[in-house]
Amino acid sequence: xxxxxxxxxxxxxxxxxxxxxxxxxxxxxxxxxxxxxxxxxxxxxxxxxxxxxxxxxxxxxxxxxxxxxxxxxxxxxxxxxxxxxxxxxxxxxxxxxxxxxxxxxxxxxxxxxxxxxxxxxxxxxxxxxxxxxxxxxxxxxxxxxxxxxxxxxxxxxxxxxxxxxxxxxxxxxxxxxxxxxxxxxxxxxxxxxxxxxxxxxxxxxxxxxxxxxxxxxxxxxxxxxxxxxxxxxxxxxxxxxxxxxxxx
Length: 248
Prior knowledge:
Blueprint: E1 5-11, E2 24-31, E3 36-40, E4 43-49, H1 55-59, E5 66-67, E6 88-95, E7 99-106, H2 110-121, E8 126-136, E9 140-141, E10 147-154, E11 158-162, E12 172-174, H3 178-185, H4 190-203, H5 213-217, H6 233-247
Parallel strand pairs: 4-10, 5-11
Antiparallel strand pairs: 1-8, 2-7, 2-12, 3-4, 6-7, 8-10, 8-11, 9-10
Helix pairs in contact: 4-6
């Protein structure tokens, strides 16, 4: 008997690109233990992904999983010849305390370049996964009048940036670039960098550690270092602006 296949989309809130040439994208494709509303071919319900739902697939090394833009389809659901090829190579797929975290090296192809630019510019704001449902818990009554279904075991067929969202919790967490480092922190001395980091850690303790250790040691004219792992670009710019105002 064939298993139902689900596709779940999540917003890319912190968009940032890493690697020396800015082609490595780190993003959550799913989040765990957070109920979200679903209205699909299987009904209208709230869904929760168990924290161990991808453990079985992870134990097999996620064989054959490919990064695809919009699951290789148009926004109308038809197969897309343009997006039928992978846009990158998975460097890491793993479940952590928050969700399914993917690290993808984008290909230097026309499709890879276009998908990367859509993510980097913010034109595309969602990440998604698609895979079969292996086992689910029995539906239970939920607080919103809809049944709640917990997915216990899931497969993973593909993941990648996409157009629309269902699961509102996952996000791109690291699309770091040399341009971002130069723009936001490039003119700061090591002492000023420590001051910015201290303010971030004071206001956002749940995101520690916020920066790579080598960021603190970066000197003027040295190679760019990763900027941050947690706060958004807007938050980093705001903290730096507040620091400047306090000095004046």
